[in-house]
Design goal:
The chain is mostly helical. It has five helices and no strands. The protein has helices at about 10-25, 40-65, 75-80, 80-90, 100-124. Helix 1 packs antiparallel against helix 2 (about 40-65), helix 2 (about 40-65) packs parallel to helix 5 (about 100-124) and helix 4 runs antiparallel to helix 5. The protein is globular, with a radius of gyration of 16 Å. The relative contact order is 0.16.
Length: about 120
């Protein structure tokens, strides 16, 4: 009998890891840093939008894979590691750069997520 993360279905592994990103990189704040002592609403919305977009695309990739070409969460993480790093680094963007500049950066992360999953689907 398997116990632990290895015994979970691929979709459940995705949910578990994305929930860690939400907990550690979205919800946790450090009041002593310039970038994290407050988070304006537009940054909050942009960060959560990107995290949820990544999550939905990862789930869709796993669920749409045929039985012959099963896709694992580990394969997705490896293929999209750059974007996953961008997701976990969004919190370090300082709101002092201005709303428009920050929105552009968050949109660029969103676009990179799209590109990463499009590239992944081409290789499958």
């Amino acid at each position: 009998q398997l116990v632990g993360e290895d015994s979970l279905a691929e979709a459940d592994k995705i949910t578990l890891d994305i929930s860690k990103i939400i907990k550690d990189d979205f919800l946790q704040q450090n009041g002593f840093t310039e970038y994290d002592k407050f988070c304006p609403f537009f940054k909050t919305v942009g960060m959560l939008r990107n995290i949820m977009h990544y999550y939905r695309l990862a789930i869709r990739t796993v669920e749409s894979a045929s039985a012959d070409s099963k896709v694992t969460w580990n394969q997705i993480k490896t293929a999209t590691s750059d974007v996953l790093f961008e997701l976990t680094s969004m919190k370090f963007e300082s709101p002092s750069m201005g709303e428009e500049a920050l929105k552009k950066k968050l949109q660029k992360v969103y676009d990179n997520i799209e590109k990463a999953f499009a590239s992944l689907e081409e290789t499958l």
